[in-house]
Amino acid sequence: MKEKFVTVPDAVVQALEGAGNIVLFTHIHPDGDALGSLFGLADLLLASGKKVFCYLEEPVSHLYDFLPGCELANCSLDDLESFVDEASTDLVALALDCGDADRLGVHREKFLNISPFAVIDHHLSHRDFGTVRWVESSRSSTGEMVYELAMALGLEITYRAAYNLYVAICTDTGSFRYDCTGSRTLHIAAELVEKGVRPEEVGGHLFDNYSKERLKLMEFVLATMNLYESDQVAFIHVTRQMLRESGATMEDVEGFIDYPRSLRTVKIAVFLKEGKNGQVSVSMRAKGECDVAAIARGFDGGGHRNAAGFRLSNTSIETVRLQVQEKVSRVLHDQKK
Ligand code: AMP
Ligand code: MN
Ligand code: MN
User: Fold this and answer.
1) Which ligand 1 atom minimizes the distance to the CA of 284?
2) Contact 132/105 with Cβ under 8 angstroms?
3) 17, 65, 191, 252: most buried, per Cβ within 10 A?
4) How far is Cα of residue 144 from the mean position of the Cα atoms in its chain?
5) Residues within a 6 A CB radius of ligand 1
6) Same structural domain for residues 275 and 220?
7) Per residue in 289-301, pLDDT tens?
8) Domain that holds residue 61
């Protein structure tokens, strides 16, 4: 079946075509889609003669430092302000893969003063912000949308951009396995491979890159698995103590949730992460019709139907577990009706 997609809105194309200087933003704690879209688009825009500033609140995680172009990342607010001043009115800001303004980070109010402020995103839970928007929740990834944008702008896809966009699409589709993977997604991935991207090389960087510390941490985390609701719900958690004992970092937990999700009977997997100072971050994954974005929204978070998250302050893993368990059970029971 052919999917129905909107064409890239003219306002987005015109905003980017018309500006000589572009500031790119993405969401905090950026994943493969966020960084791949950012560096992929940056490379395309630079190749077309534009000046580009890639702002990140924190340096690129060691999990993604293989991305070509990650040296473009700049965390300096002073540098950003100089770029904006120099560009004067010949400037557009663009947020990629960011579901709501809060996820632009602590300096969001400053960023949102830039006008026009364009937004390209695919979150089901998207809350509108910015002045020029393209939000399409049926898209697999922002990387896929950046490819369509490049076509609309008439830009030739460079190898470096292809590599980044492939990482973006591959990570957000769970290596082309999730429901969001459509025929257009695979066509675009094929085009990127035509540009020279080697799936085996990317797969090696993304999935066969564990340190001993990371594998140790996984051992601790998997040992915490609890099953509920006739094995349809799995919870795992990570504590600060586990990080200390394994020598790994919180970045290293990326992908761990795929293991409880992989259990045949599991419909919803939940990962509770103990942050600093009483913060707990929650990642959820679901299969099929189970909507975890709705649960996340109830806690002021967001995401997609099958992958969502949120963060709470002044709490504990045990408290959050009980809160989430109740909501998850309700979703499962409502689904049966
Ligand atoms: P994660 O479990 O961190 O990989 O996130 C899964 C999905 O949920 C991603 O699409 C995120 O954008 C979204 N998400 C995660 N945490 C939050 C949050 N605190 N607020 C809004 N959306 C979130
Ligand atoms: Mn993302
Ligand atoms: Mn995404």
Assistant:
1) 2
2) no
3) 252
4) 13
5) 31, 99, 103, 123, 283, 301-304, 307-311
6) yes
7) 899 999 999 999 9
8) 10-207
